[in-house]
């Protein structure tokens, strides 16, 4: 079956052009399976059916083996019961239509009638059992699939999360768990329809050889209709999904708190609303197009089905007239054809749905496999118990997708940097971090300070060079043990939408929460006042969008962030811009606290632009465009008159510049 593109190329609306710079196309991993679906033919669907059913069954068995077995057994026995019912009906008709004495005919038909009743009862009971078990199974399957998804996603290297391609997969695969859930009921209905079709077809084949082709002829048009519509729907979905997302983005912007002030002060509301309407109208036009086509296809299919039904009954009539078929057989045939036709209809529809869901589940399985490949490795060498030094040896690192990264090439659309040789984020850096000291990392924006501490924390692995904890290469060390040594207050540390207590204790979430440790960490970070000012103390929910939630200022959050790091009790404390949001008094206080932490034997790696605060560091490393340019004590660096001294002088000037004296009145 050739590829036919039914979906209209979306007209690029003015709104898309203005807001998003052009037409929105969905460029995610979906396209990988879109073509598989578009090439969908009945034969292809049938070929893929066993695989799809097996995949549903595997998930079902994993989620709730008992419920899965109940569904399977119930559906199988129901199919058999239907065959018995058809044969019994045939026998009833035969007895009723034979012989002169009505009483005698009724008596002869009674056992078969009883069998029909009993089998119908069995059928109803089994249907109830299957419905119950399917209902139990579905949420469990979704949960198991989602858990696997989340577990794998949470366990991959940071580099994978930041990798464009992996993130696409992560995004598309999130729909897979829901699809896995839906596959259970579609799968059940496919099995049920398949078994009752086999039952009807078997009975028809026994009754007369011509009946089976008649059954197929009657069902083909609706199968064609269902397939055609499904393919159009799916293709349209893929072409338009990005557009729909953008519409949702605009509607969210209109209601989200972060945008609310500007929407009011700058009057952005009507502007966004106008574009929301314009984009919605474009999407509505697509829906209308699909409905028009679906109605037309439905009419054509219904016409063909009507003609095929007419032909079927004409054939039965001719067979009766010619004496080639008994009246009782014709009666049973009518019932069997109706049962079979409806089963075949259901089968085509459900296989179609199953196939559609299977594509999304396929994304999920691709994610499982890819995430397993990119997971943080387990096991490895133990780190020295009490190392003296961490040493960066010729460390070079570029971010995934960066053109400077070995093996990665620039993607189309990456900003070009004409004339600027592409530099790695860290370029051949060799430096020492003596443990038990305060080490400051200094440099202009983008010089590689944050990157360096991320490598230090084991979040990335160098492309070249080594990071040695005494003699042990961190790349070969047990990453779990390495992480245990590190506490980090990143620049953009997570503000968890939980209570203040959890926001501190999440620093060591694997250990039981103890109030003493919590209070000590809060005190060490100088966050007692912040906590005391909260309406419910540590139990205050720090999320404004929930009822009873409370919002902290940037500086107050920063204190909690430091408390979290203190609670972790990592031997290596990394603080990236800890005072960016603090006022002058708070800044002094936080540096005092950090110094005290170092005094207790903890190593502090401090990134800051406030060079006045660096004066107390034992060692300063100065970075410039990914390279180490200076190292030494603050006094040595000032005396040297290099980059550090220049930056220091610039900041000092701001404070020593003469303030103009007020003019006398
Ligand atoms: N996640 C990332 N993905 C890709 N490139 C990144 C990423 N983070 C940083 N970079 C790039 O790496 C280089 C070094 O950035 P880094 O954040 O380490 O600098 P920094 O010295 O900490 O800067 P700042 O003082 O502004 O915090 C920059 O060119 C930056 O654009």
Automatic annotation (TrEMBL):
It comes from the Bacteria. It is a multi-pass membrane protein. This is ABC transporter ATP-binding protein. InterPro entries: AAA+_ATPase, ABC1_TM_dom, ABC1_TM_sf, ABC_transporter-like_ATP-bd, ABC_transporter-like_CS, P-loop_NTPase, Type_1_exporter. Keywords: ATP-binding, Membrane, Nucleotide-binding, Transmembrane, Transmembrane helix. GO terms for molecular function: ATP binding. Residues 390-650 form the ABC transporter domain. It comes from Streptomyces camelliae. Residues 398-424 are annotated as: Disordered. It is found in: Cell membrane. The chain crosses the membrane at residues 190-211. Residues 70-356 form the ABC transmembrane type-1 domain.
């Amino acid at each position: 079956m050739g590829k036919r593109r039914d979906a209209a190329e979306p007209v690029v609306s003015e709104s898309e052009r203005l807001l998003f710079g052009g037409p929105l196309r969905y460029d995610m991993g979906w396209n990988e399976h879109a073509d598989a679906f578009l090439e969908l033919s009945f034969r292809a669907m049938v070929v893929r059916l066993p695989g799809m059913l097996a995949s549903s069954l595997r998930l079902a068995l994993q989620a709730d083996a008992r419920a899965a077995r109940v569904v399977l057994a119930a559906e199988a026995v129901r199919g058999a019961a239907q065959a018995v019912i058809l044969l019994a009906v045939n026998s009833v008709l035969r007895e009723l239509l034979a012989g002169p004495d009505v009483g005698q005919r009724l008596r002869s038909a009674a056992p078969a009638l009883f069998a029909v009743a009993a089998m119908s009862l069995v059928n109803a009971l089994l249907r109830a059992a299957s419905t119950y078990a399917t209902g139990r199974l579905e949420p469990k399957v979704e949960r198991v699939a989602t858990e696997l998804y989340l577990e794998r996603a949470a366990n991959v290297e940071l580099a994978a999360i930041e990798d464009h391609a992996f993130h696409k997969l992560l995004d598309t695969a999130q729909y897979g768990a829901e699809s896995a859930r839906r596959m259970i009921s579609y799968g059940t209905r496919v099995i049920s329809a398949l078994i009752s079709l086999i039952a009807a077809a078997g009975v028809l084949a026994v009754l007369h050889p011509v009946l089976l082709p008649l059954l197929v002829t009657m069902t083909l048009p609706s199968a064609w209709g269902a397939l055609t519509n499904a393919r159009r729907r799916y293709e349209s979905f893929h072409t338009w999904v990005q557009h729909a997302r953008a519409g949702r983005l605009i509607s969210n912007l209109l209601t989200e708190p972060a945008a609310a002030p500007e929407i009011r002060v700058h009057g952005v509301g009507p502007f966004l609303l106008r574009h929301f309407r314009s984009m919605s109208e474009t999407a509505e036009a697509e829906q209308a197009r699909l409905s028009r086509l679906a109605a037309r296809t439905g009419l054509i299919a219904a016409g063909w089905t009507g003609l095929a039904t007419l032909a079927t009954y004409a054939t039965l009539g001719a067979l009766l007239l010619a004496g080639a078929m008994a009246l009782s057989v014709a009666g049973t045939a009518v019932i069997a054809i109706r049962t079979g036709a409806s089963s075949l209809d259901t089968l085509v529809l459900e296989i179609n749905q199953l196939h559609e869901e299977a594509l999304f589940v396929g994304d999920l399985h691709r994610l499982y496999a890819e995430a397993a490949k990119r997971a943080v490795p387990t096991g490895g060498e133990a780190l020295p118990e009490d190392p003296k030094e961490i040493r960066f040896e010729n460390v070079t690192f570029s971010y995934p997708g960066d053109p400077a990264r070995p093996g990665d090439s620039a993607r189309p659309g990456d900003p070009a940097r004409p004339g600027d040789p592409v530099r790695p984020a860290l370029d051949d850096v060799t430096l020492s971090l003596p443990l038990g000291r305060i080490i400051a990392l200094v440099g202009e924006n983008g010089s590689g300070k944050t990157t360096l501490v991320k490598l230090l924390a084991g979040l990335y692995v160098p492309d070249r060079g080594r990071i040695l904890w005494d003699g042990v290469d961190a790349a070969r060390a047990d990453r779990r043990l390495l992480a245990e040594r590190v506490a980090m207050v990143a620049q953009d540390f997570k503000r968890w939408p939980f209570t203040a207590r959890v926001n501190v204790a999440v620093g060591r979430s694997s250990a039981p929460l103890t109030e003493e440790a919590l209070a000590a960490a809060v005190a060490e970070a100088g966050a007692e006042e912040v906590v005391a000012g909260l309406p419910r103390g540590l139990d205050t929910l720090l999320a404004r969008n929930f009822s009873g939630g409370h919002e902290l200022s940037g500086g107050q959050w920063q204190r909690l962030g430091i408390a979290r790091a203190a609670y972790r009790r990592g031997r290596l404390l990394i603080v990236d811009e800890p005072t960016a949001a603090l006022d002058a008094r708070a800044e002094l206080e936080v540096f005092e606290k950090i110094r005290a932490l170092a005094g207790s034997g903890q190593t502090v790696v401090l990134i800051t632009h406030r060079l006045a605060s660096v004066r107390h560091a034992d060692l300063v490393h100065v970075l410039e465009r990914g390279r180490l340019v200076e190292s030494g004590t603050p006094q040595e660096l000032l005396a040297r008159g290099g980059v550090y001294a220049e930056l220091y002088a610039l900041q000092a000037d701001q404070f020593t510049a003469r303030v103009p004296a007020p003019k006398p009145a």
